[in-house]
Amino acid sequence: MSRGTQIRLLSFTLLLIFWSSFAWYKADPQLLPSPLAVAAEVQSLIETGKLWPNLFATLQRVVFAFTLAMFIGCVLGYCMGRNANFNAWLDPWLIMFLNIPALIIIVLCLIWIGLNEIAVVTAVTLNKVPLVTTIIREGARNASTELRDLAKVYKLPRMAQVRHIILPELYPSIVGAARAGLSVIWKIVLVVEFLGGSSGRGIGLQIHTQFSVFNVTGVFAYAISFVAVIMLIEFALLQPLESRLNKWRGHA
Known about the structure:
By secondary structure, the chain is an all-alpha fold. Helix content is about 85%, strand content about 0%.
């Protein structure tokens, strides 16, 4: 077991100890349930079949919105970073969308489009695209002009330039945008579901249901279940991917 893994496990253990101690101190399960009570509730949700359909529904919305936001944001960000005129045209729009509160975009999408899946994905994507665009734009601005000039001299095909020059230079920015995007998108999806923008299933909708009956244990159970999925994606996918892609920089 690596040193980093040991530290993470120790940190997680301390978090559980702090949570358990505070729950014991409050001595009110209706206000703050213990980790064991939440774990028992999660197990109950799994055994009754209530967890997986809602977890999958929310995860599906996250994947759709994440993919769409990353694609649009990467294209716009790269074009803005490499073309001053294009950047001048879109920069006011970017600043405006960066500063519009997420709740306003969510509410407007639900009103204009309706309480359906399209509204959910649209609202989440619109909230995320500006951040991805900004990160990718800065990465494109810092890209090497010399490598592109060299590619033109040797008449390197466009797709080869994308594969061997453009994408490797943007890898750190893309991974950073993906990590920031994932951390924001799933929270926005839960808010949209909480407000009723889902088709009967979703973690946010279930949290709203548990909140309406003041079941704090249920709120914790659904929330932590999805947080566990996001942490699994972070540690099993994003961090290994980041380490692998950064090898290019080490050999550059």
